[in-house]
Design goal:
The chain is mainly alpha-helical. Helix content is about 70%, strand content about 0%. The protein is built from 11 helices and 2 strands; from the N terminus they run E-H-H-E-H-H-H-H-H-H-H-H-H. A two-stranded antiparallel ribbon has the order 1-2. Helix 4 packs antiparallel against helix 5. Residues about 1-25 and about 35-40 have low confidence and may be disordered.
Length: about 240
């Protein structure tokens, strides 16, 4: 991942001789310009080929979930949604942690950012597997899964809404460098913050749609809810 470059930007005062600027220079001391960020503060936007490759990979994962059979299909039918929600919950919590600039030192904060992105990608991958398995197994029609209606079950619509909100968060995260370079920080926070609404919607969908969840699944969701709520409260108090 490319890193932002830092350097000094020459100014007319720094380049001009002392007799031109009117400054007094003693010995070899010369005016030094402050360090200025000369590159985007985040990774640059992906190239078109990278975007196409990502879309093809996502489509392959979705189709692969539908083509899975045997024991693998049974595992994905039961666990793909759980793994997706747990991974996305971790991504949300780690994203909150990266916002605490005064708490985490730079190096650990960078590591947390990488983990945030990794769990986000993992969660989206299992989410696509979850959708593919459910559609292939006849649990929900493809149109209902894509549009969020038509199945007669509002809980399926919640799952579709959660999926699109998470995809919006991923897209804004991929193009975060563009938002930062153009100083569109507030629109970025609003769009990327859609992951919170998507996550809450996904939790409701996971607890109420389909089969009754196991006790350990409910406990895992409750733990994620508690940890995320605590991180939100701490972030609010830290800002104040």
């Amino acid at each position: 991942m490319s890193r932002p470059t830092y350097g000094t930007v020459a100014t007319p005062e720094a380049e001009a001789p002392a007799h031109v600027t009117g400054e007094t220079v003693t010995g070899d001391t010369a005016p030094v310009a402050p360090a200025v960020r000369t590159g985007p503060p985040h990774t640059p936007p992906p190239r078109p080929l990278s975007v196409i490759a990502g879309l093809v990979l996502a489509g392959g994962v979705l189709v692969g979930g539908g083509l899975a059979g045997g024991a693998l299909r049974g595992f994905l039918d039961k666990m793909a949604g759980v793994v997706a929600l747990v991974a996305l919950s971790l991504a949300v919590m780690l994203g909150l942690a990266t916002a605490l600039r005064g708490v985490l030192p730079p190096r650990p904060r960078t590591a947390v950012q990488h983990l945030h992105r990794a769990f986000g990608v993992l969660g989206i991958g299992f989410l696509l597997l979850h959708i593919g398995v459910k559609v292939a197994g006849g649990r929900v029609a493809a149109t209902a899964a894509a549009l969020g209606w038509g199945s007669g079950d509002a809980l399926v619509g919640l799952g579709t809404l959660a999926c699109y909100l998470f995809l919006l968060a991923v897209a804004t995260g991929v193009w975060r460098g563009v938002f930062a370079t153009h100083r569109w920080i507030r629109p970025f926070r609003m769009l990327h913050g859609a992951s919170y609404a998507g996550w809450l919607t996904a939790v409701i969908h996971g607890l109420t749609a389909g089969r009754t969840p196991a006790t350990w699944v409910v406990a895992a969701y409750a733990l994620c809810l508690t940890a995320t709520a605590a991180a939100l409260v701490y972030r609010r108090l830290h800002r104040r």
